[in-house]
Amino acid sequence: MSAGLTVLKLGGSVITTKERALAPRLPTIKRLAKEISKANISPLILVHGGGSFGHPLAKRYKIKEGYRCKASQLLGFAETHEAMVSLDKLIVDALINEKIPAVAVSPSSFVMTKSGRIHSFPEEPLTKLLSMGFVPVLFGDAVFDLDRGFTILSGDQLITHLALRFKAERIIVGVDVDGLCTSNPKMNKEAKLLTHITLKELPTVLQQISEAKTTDVTGGMPSKVREIVPAVENGISVFLVNAAKPNRLYKALRKEPVKGTYIVKG
Amino acid sequence: MSAGLTVLKLGGSVITTKERALAPRLPTIKRLAKEISKANISPLILVHGGGSFGHPLAKRYKIKEGYRCKASQLLGFAETHEAMVSLDKLIVDALINEKIPAVAVSPSSFVMTKSGRIHSFPEEPLTKLLSMGFVPVLFGDAVFDLDRGFTILSGDQLITHLALRFKAERIIVGVDVDGLCTSNPKMNKEAKLLTHITLKELPTVLQQISEAKTTDVTGGMPSKVREIVPAVENGISVFLVNAAKPNRLYKALRKEPVKGTYIVKG
Fold first, then answer.
1. Which pTM was predicted?
2. A220 vs A203: CA distance, rounded Å
């Protein structure tokens, strides 16, 4: 299936279990690689979160807040990045195993941020990768920052930047809930799924959802969704789908009807 | 020990055994990490070769020669890069284990070549890394090429570029022989070590050394040494040392007397 560019995010909660450090969900990763392969989408950029590989370390060493001249933080940054490389390796290996020409593209090797926001982003390798039919795989990463020394660049900031820069048709965000609900479905069983939200409705919806109490250093569902707003404003459709449930991501990639939340401009 | 920048190359033959594919020399990697830690050199850039992780795959899929519109080559490129990431992970993990703040910097994520030569090389993250006291770890990699689609960027081309761009004081090349000899020491037991060579003497020496018959896609010792000539021409001293033998790399890093070959301008 060839069409406009799809930017696919796989949330850290989907591909790892956040209950303990460095714990991948290997069967899920394998299944998702199969679904992506079967969907046969091109061009495709994949971005994944850190889950229990990135967040506990980033939190322990206060990487997001920046460098405060403590030698232990340098080692902490090194450990955090290397943990993300380990997780990324599991994803890329699973994709290659399904015959997808996936190439790890390491954010800290080329992206610089300024006060936590993307500042420079040399695009040449990524442009080439996409034009040749590779699937670049990026990830939320510990990166270097002009003001802070270093910080955390979230996968959510990355997908929006990539979608805008490479003129994506759509963003698909694979999460571990069915989509955006009237309240946090992990805490409230009465929560109802919202299948279609416009930008105008979004602020009210986000206010209703209480922040998820997780170890996520990049801040729960509301902050994730807020990161994606600029893409929606530019006419890129965003679809949130439960990638923890079999076959949903496949259907979303194939544009088949499936439970989830569309966020559209209006 | 703080001084001018040291660019250290660890040859693929030192950190892997080339007798079979994907075979790291783990005790050697651990020992070298200890020697580097004990030497306590700063600033330091580390670059390693591919050995049995990079070369057999690169050769099988003809990655160096470029993309010839075969889908199998895309997967081959993906596999080659990912194998290098695996090897790099072993090195970086060993360094972090010795409390060195080592950060993997992935060449294919930011370097573009043109007909096999470095064409663009955004330096901002590396500059920041070095200024903060991190040890960047790069490697010979499968990279994207403006003319060929993709190719192999050797660790030797990388060290020269890095040494020139970041004004290194010296390059240390860790190999699995004692240095440059009057002939190939792996094939001729009469070979004598040359401890000191000037640029003027170099062409004659390289002619005497027959090409090593290995699976190295970047081409034996003579081609490695030729890559480094521009650095020597710019006054950067180059020292070849046997990193397969304990304590030699440590002594070289500490500038203590040790067996090896200096290549100097004149």
1. 0.95
2. 15
